[in-house]
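Protein entry
_____________
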Amino acid sequence: RIGPTAATSSSLPMGTYADGQVYRSGWEPMYSFNLSKGEALFFAPSFIHESKNVGDTCAASITYQYSHPMAARMFSAFWPRLRRTADMNECWESASLWATLGNRGVDPDAAEALADRMFAEADRNGDGKLEEGELEWAAGSVHGAAVNQIGFHDANEDGVVSKEEFLTGLGAWSRTESEVRRATGASVWDGVQDDGSDDEHERDEM
């Protein structure tokens, strides 16, 4: 049984979706499946999932996580609930880097005011849209960053990011981050070392 985390307007503490706790939060599975011998189930990252052996023989349940490409568009759509769910903290930094085009540490309260400059700096050929090549140049050696940044912002899925899409995506990210920071006193960037390395190639937890 699987399903996304529940929508929430308040921050949920670590352990809300821990084993044995999940149903106390009001979570309900969206899908239920019966898998037969030799079958596998592919589901989105950050989905709550549980398995139960309903047969008479021993069964193993193994989760294999894929780090590239990330489900960046899903993280964009579900960002308000994921950012408010502490059990999903391992995705916060990566999704924030996609939202800000790799501008680590950007103040969410100032993000929308900086949006025009951020877009112009990334739009190297000045054609009013961000393409994978331009974002790859900006990301340097960070594996997968450009693909994930486009995935986060590309609402119409045409393979590029328009200025309107970027302003919408960044605005949604910054408003949620500002609300959470005011409520909890903690920023998504807290504890992040600005060492020039991003985490698309280092973190598989999502």
Notes: The chain is about 35% helix and 5% strand. Confidence is low (pLDDT under 50) at residues 193-206. The radius of gyration is 18 Å. The beta strands are 2-3, 48-49, 129-130, 161-162.
